[in-house]
Structures are given as structure tokens and as C-alpha cells.
Amino acid sequence: MSTIHGYHAHVYFDAETLEQAHALCEQAHNKFAVEMGRVHERPVGPHPMCSCQLAFGPDDFGKVVPWLSLNRGGLIVFVHAETGDDIADHTEHALWMGAMMALDLSALE
Length: 109
Prior knowledge:
The protein is α+β, with helices and mostly antiparallel strands.
């Protein structure tokens, strides 16, 4: 079994939900002291939509993920483990809240 070093949660949004997504990420950052990445207003890497990344440790999973589930307000959230195996982390070690979307895995090769 791989060692999980951390997690990323990617909050997806479009032009209409940008403010909602930014507010959700700010709230998570303030509530849990998770690291908030840049708000990408275009698809970046394997992600098919605009997104904001939240990074947190394994010990915070049980707090952050349930909170996102209850507070995402219809936004799509993609959560994945960080083990060092990017392909597995974005496929086998991942979960979706809301619609499941196709990732561009070629961006990880």
C-alpha cells in the first residue's frame, strides 16, 4: 500500500460560480488552515474546468472532506490522495462530489 502524504481538493467552477467557489475555498482555508492554491480561471493540468486547489494533510481528511461535502453548494469537488504516483492519485486514489468528469491524464505523464 502506498503512503499518503497529503490530499488535494479541487473545487471546479465556471463564470457563474466563480465567486461561490472562491468563497468556499476561503472558508475552508480559514476554518481548517488548509493551503489554498491559486484560483485558475481556465483549465490547468488534468482538470477539465476552472478550479481552485486546497491542500491538506492526512490528519485533516476526516474534517475537511465532510465539511466540503456539506458546504459545496452544488459545486463539483474532486479529491485525491498525494502518494507520488500522479496517475494513480488522479484515478484509483480519488473521489468525486457531484458529477464525475473526465480528466486529461496525458498532462500527468
